[in-house]
């Protein structure tokens, strides 16, 4: 990858306020990831692309990895919603389809790179676990628990165990590239682990396909 390929045009002139700079920086990481692997994206290049100073970035994030973690967290929150207001089966099925679509694209590359770097940094591993897994895991477990109670899911065992069986298998495929992970495979895993009633898809509307572009 050449320096010219990595060089980015600043998004705008001037130095926005810190709160505006945060969004600029998160967007810049995603945009730079289209041109280079995460290991080649420095704070200098992020600052240049975002139109802010490195000092501004370091006021918000103590390290580039901390910035990458926040980028991943925002990406997942935006593209992989977990709807606690929806019926349990619809909530989990829809989440898995969104996850499959996003993780086959740029979001998957970002997740693999960030998680790989976090494994070498215990402090950032805790941040990722507490800020992503802590909240999203608890939400998914609650939804699965409601589904086990109301009969949407006919599997035995407790909600936490079923959650880890389902999402553990999915993350294994994402991180190590073992087997396919698409809409059909995601739903097949859900059926195997949670055992919804036969014919459940007749009452569920799959999410629309994402528009072409970054995923």
Automatic annotation (TrEMBL):
SUPFAM superfamilies: Homeodomain-like (SSF46689), Tetracyclin repressor-like, C-terminal domain (SSF48498). InterPro entries: Homeodomain-like_sf (IPR009057), HTH-type_TetR-like_transc_reg (IPR050109), HTH_TetR (IPR001647), Tet_transcr_reg_TetR-rel_C_sf (IPR036271), TetR_C (IPR011075). Coiled coil: none annotated. Residues 42-61 bind DNA. Residues 19-79 form the HTH tetR-type domain. GO terms for molecular function: DNA-binding transcription factor activity; transcription cis-regulatory region binding. It holds the Pfam family TetR_C_11. Keywords: DNA-binding, Transcription, Transcription regulation. Residues 1-20 are annotated as: Disordered. This is TetR/AcrR family transcriptional regulator. It comes from Siccirubricoccus deserti. The lineage of its organism: Bacteria, Pseudomonadati, Pseudomonadota, Alphaproteobacteria, Acetobacterales.
